[in-house]
Amino acid sequence: MKQLLLALALSTPLLCAIPQAQEITTVKKFNQLAAQDKPLVILFYAPWCDACKSMKKSFNEVSQELKTKATFAKINIETSALRPLAASLGITSIPTLIVKRAGDQSKAKLKRALEALL
Question: What's the rounded Cα separation, in Å, for the pair 42 and 98?
Fold first, then answer.
């Protein structure tokens, strides 16, 4: 019996699935994540979008590498309850990545962040 179990264990392929970034399905869940102290990185996507499918794999990989620095989440824009949220955030095309930071969003802070990127 032990040999059979060992043979089964050795013949079963190991599945190295990449952990998924969490899915936001409600505005309440978005508000909870946005209220955290860590930055929130959101991927807006649609299941039929080929560019989104390609980006989701990389997004999930990066989310695991940087999970201590930010919260990573995905929003399916096809979810009717989330369409107003996407519109309020200015999402007009997919895939779109946004980073929402908690805390002070003053003009000076925004200017420093933009200058660091330029």
Answer: 5
